[in-house]
Model the fold of this input.
Amino acid sequence: MSMRKLLVFALFAVLAAAPAWAQNINAAGATFPYPIYSKWFDEYHKAHPNVQINYQSIGSGGGIRQLLDKTVDFGASDGPMSDDQLKQAGFKILHFPTVLGAAVPSYNIAGVTSELKFTPEALAGIYLGTITKWNDPAIAGANPGVKLTAQDIVVLHRSDGSGTTYIWSDYLSKVSNDWKSKVGTNTSVNWPVGLGGKGNEGVAGLLKQTPNSIGYVELIYAIQNNLSYGSVKNAAGDFVKASLAGVSAAAAGAAKSMPDDFRVSITNAPGKGAYPISSFTWLLIPAQIQDAAKKSAIKDFLGWMLTSGQQDCEPLAYAKLPGEVVAKEEKAISMIQ
Amino acid sequence: MMATAHTTVDAAGLSWGPRALLRRLRTGDEIARLVTLFFALVVVLLTIMLVVQLWTNSAQARHRFGLSFFWGTTWDPVAGQFGALPFVYGTLVTSALGLLIAVPLGLGAAIFLAEMAPRRLSDNLTFLIDLLAAVPSVIYGLLGVFILVPLMRTEIQPALKTVFGFTPLFQGPAYGIGLLTAGLVLAVMIVPFIISVSREVLLAVPGDQREAALALGATRWEATWKAVVPYARTGIMGSVFLALARALGETMAVTMVVGNNPRISASLFSPGYSIAAVLANEFSEATGNLYLSALIELALVLFLLTFVLNGLARLLIVLTTSRGSGVPQA
Done:
């Protein structure tokens, strides 16, 4: 009997003591950075056993909604929140870039084994449906020596709302006025032409099966699955094949004109080696956090993410933040009150 | 059953009144009635709550677009312009194609299993068919993408084009994916439901029905087709509607092979989009209240569509049954 009493007492003691050492933080949002986020939260938990960050990769839209409803402590998004959304929030939200992503044009053309070069005009024309044949001068002009067929181009895109589509449509909006006025930038858009595949794997599957097709996939997916992809002409006039270094270079090129709230698009960024179809992904953090323990945990995590955390990027094929951006963000952490 | 002065007898033949109630409570009848009534009410309540939620959460889109939501053909999340027609079209066409293929196939198989096959074979085959019904839809989608789509592009669609190319139904480029492929995958998915339920219904037809037809000099097939199948018609229709409901709401397998392009085109080769597929694709990344509200209104439209089709189906049963074929109401 006394043994049982002791056990009950011990249980109560553990339950009562638990809140004192376990700091649970809930977050939700983007799926694209989920692999690195889960590694970060896991490593951070190992280094700081009293802090546990739970992340639900429900999509950027869901992350923003849950943050606005205050059902999570912070959110994550592949696209920055719009002015309207920030106004509607009723409380101040800060953006913190974490890593970079990029979209690459992949293709499947019978008989073409060499790497194709794409000009911005060619990509915009293909996705607007104004360029319909592979041997169109806009494509052939940039690829002398490659024998292109006179077949129709089958255009592929993502059917699910995604950060990759956001980057792709943001880039096309920058380089084509027609795209900007007719289609615009979003996680899903009203595609003028093409077939939709669900997820990177859906687009890649369609690519493999459909002759004379072109599609865009996330750079990480292309690297991990050995997909071949073409290079794209950047703002400096060079053809750049997407690589982690090229994506970080785009961020460095845009860092000079980086606004204080970090809400910036870095597609078509200046700089010689910059890959033009790149973007940040952000954590969305309330500027005011009532719970003092939670606040210090989140601030400490951000500091850790900008230093030690960035070392985890390359093995997982994410492009890391350039030094200029890290320095600027470290200053911004003090804005969390 | 004794009916005293203050007791009334309802349609079910149960007497009402304090003493009768007490007696039935003691025998357990009343408890069983209340418990099952509660369960039945839960289902009704769930349906009502679902509609109320969809209705209130779609308020913004309903006010913004009104009835034009039903015939709008643009779906533009950037411009905030939303119309449901291409999705309704895609949903109806793929489901109709699925039924068109699955009903004759399923009914034929059910007749064989119930009427002609030896009982052992029939039971074993039915076990396999029930297994098919339990395969997750993503598996059907994968098989569709890897096996059916290449076959459609290189063999079936070119063949259809040469034979039926003069009709608008079979024109345009053969991508392999599209409305026709989605209809085929749906047909494969729903056929087990039709076979399984129809077989049970056919087996439940009383032997007298068959024997009477045979006694009048009918051949075996005539007895089956003219006496047994009409008798089981209501149940067979039920299996078809169950299959239709599955087809209307199918998400994963459809989105993998339909092409996901909200356009209305006469050709069955062209890509399309279904309501369930667009909901699954766009819901998680939908930012902005109007966009979200429009997606929820699409869900409401799908609910309405299912409701109307079910209503029409019931009407069809009533009309065909009362046409004096001597078939009792099941």
Summary: The two ends of chain A are 51 Å apart (CA to CA).
